[in-house]
Amino acid sequence: MTFLVNGKNHIAEPWAGQCLRTFLRELGCFGVKKGCDAGDCGACTVLVDGDPVHSCLFPAYRARDRTVTTIEGLAYNGELHPMQEAFLQAQGFQCGFCTPGMIMTASTLNQSQRQDLAWALKGNICRCTGYGAIENAIRGVRQIETAEAGNACGRRRHDLARSALERGRFRRFRGPNCRIRPVSGAELAGQRLPTVRHADL
Q1: Helices 99-106 and 131-139 meet at what angle, rounded to 10?
Q2: Angle CA(92)–CA(94)–CA(96) in degrees, nearest 5?
Q3: 145-181 pLDDT, tens per residue?
Q4: Which of 42, 72, 100, 161 is such that its CA lies 20 to 30 A from the CA of 198?
Q5: What is the pairing mode between strands 2-5 and 8-11?
């Protein structure tokens, strides 16, 4: 059987009942992740003839004589795909395990589908709950700063709006916030420990 994976022909025979995910990993496409093995998480998403599919559910033999694209094949001539670049610029990932599947699905979305991302990405789960950064990436919102010689990257306390400081969101303490000392069990017997609420700080 002939399989076209990331622009290269492979002559191989998948074993009976083999899913496309394990077949692609045997071909060296390790960006195809094993997540749930039930078609729920989308970590194994690849494109078959341009359509995203969960490769853990897709029989390998059905990919014969079809075009299969994994995250490794999304880039072209050494240049990242625009969606890969968008995820990089927006830092649209936390642990990164779901990222290949998210990018594969997001790369196929048209403008109308991007209006309802909750529906469009219903087959992809981020277990780190990083959907804000993922949404920013898909919408093209940049989250990283450009490094310039002599300027530090990152927000400093002095760059924050004065109103944030006036509302008490950031407080400067002079000296230690508390003292820690060893306490014996006899001291604690029958005592009620004081409760400190966030509002008291």
Answers
A1: 30
A2: 85
A3: 666 666 655 544 444 444 444 444 444 445 555 566 6
A4: 161
A5: antiparallel
